[in-house]
């Protein structure tokens, strides 16, 4: 446990097979639970669990919480922990939510060129018409920038684009989409 993370933004999640009343209302504190409790006391980490069982023993029907989510104390008011009643497994899924004002890094939509529908003749003619015949002694970076602008302007005019969405990402084949729909339903 000396290697477990315990800094300000750290989260430890896992089936640690340790029981403590700090995270497991259904079982007494065991030896492993006491070891984790001691680590918590020394580390500024806290259990996010609310005491709800995360595992049901199929043979006896008894419930316990071996799955523990430990977070740094500075994250306690920004995170929620919820057990989901889903799947026919002896382990219950857990949803951990982080709620904070996270700025969007890239909120611009992505677009992809529809190359099969391009008007290549018009595209080529516009580029040829726009390219200067003589560049003189211009800096190569300025020449490249000018050529790039000409090409992009012509492409925007003669090649249509489509917005990239979850439904048309290239790695989402029809087979994968079908499996996702099965999982959702």
If you had to describe this structure to a student in words, what would you say it looks like?
It is built from four helices and nine strands, in the order βαβββββββααβα. The chain is of the alpha+beta class. The protein folds into two domains: 11-98, 4-Layer Sandwich (Deoxyribonuclease I, Chain A); 103-185, no CATH class. Strands 1-5-2 form a three-stranded antiparallel beta sheet, with helices on one face. A two-stranded antiparallel sheet has the order 3-4. A two-stranded antiparallel sheet has the order 6-7.
What is the total tally of β strands? 9
Helix fraction? 25-40%
Gyration radius, in Å: 28 Å
Query: How many distinct domains?
Result: 2
- Mean pLDDT rating: 85
- Side-by-side strand order of the widest sheet: 1-5-2
As residue ranges, the low-confidence spans are none
Beta-strand percent range: 15-25%
Q: What is the CATH top level name of the largest domain?
A: Alpha Beta
| CATH fold label of the largest domain | Deoxyribonuclease I, Chain A
Supply the helix-strand structural class.
Answer: alpha+beta
- The ordered string of helix (H) and strand (E) elements is EHEEEEEEEHHEH
Corresponding CATH superfamily of the largest domain: Endonuclease/exonuclease/phosphatase
Describe the protein's topology:
Blueprint: E1 11-15, H1 31-43, E2 45-47, E3 55-56, E4 63-64, E5 67-72, E6 79-83, E7 94-98, E8 111-113, H2 120-130, H3 140-158, E9 161-163, H4 174-184
Antiparallel strand pairs: 1-5, 2-5, 3-4, 6-7, 8-9
Question: Can I get a quick summary?
Answer:
29% of the residues lie in helices and 18% in strands. The chain has 185 residues and is α+β, with helices and mostly antiparallel strands. It has 2 domains: 11-98, Deoxyribonuclease I, Chain A; 103-185, no CATH class.
């Amino acid at each position: 446990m000396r290697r477990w993370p315990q800094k300000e933004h750290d989260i430890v999640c896992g089936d640690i097979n340790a029981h403590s009343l700090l995270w497991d209302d259904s079982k007494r504190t065991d030896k492993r639970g006491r070891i984790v409790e001691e680590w918590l006391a020394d580390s500024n980490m806290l259990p996010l669990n609310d005491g709800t069982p995360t595992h049901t023993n199929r043979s006896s029907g008894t419930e316990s919480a071996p799955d523990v989510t430990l977070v740094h104390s500075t994250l306690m008011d920004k995170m929620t922990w919820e057990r989901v009643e889903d799947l026919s497994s002896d382990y219950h899924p857990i949803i951990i939510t982080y709620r904070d004002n996270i700025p969007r890094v890239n909120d611009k939509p992505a677009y992809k060129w529809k190359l099969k529908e391009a008007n290549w003749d018009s595209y080529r003619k516009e580029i040829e018409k726009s390219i200067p015949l003589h560049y003189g002694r211009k800096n190569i970076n300025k020449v490249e920038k000018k050529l790039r602008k000409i090409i992009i302007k012509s492409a925007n005019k003669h090649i249509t684009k489509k917005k990239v969405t979850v439904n048309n990402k290239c790695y989402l084949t029809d087979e994968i989409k079908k499996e996702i729909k099965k999982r959702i339903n």
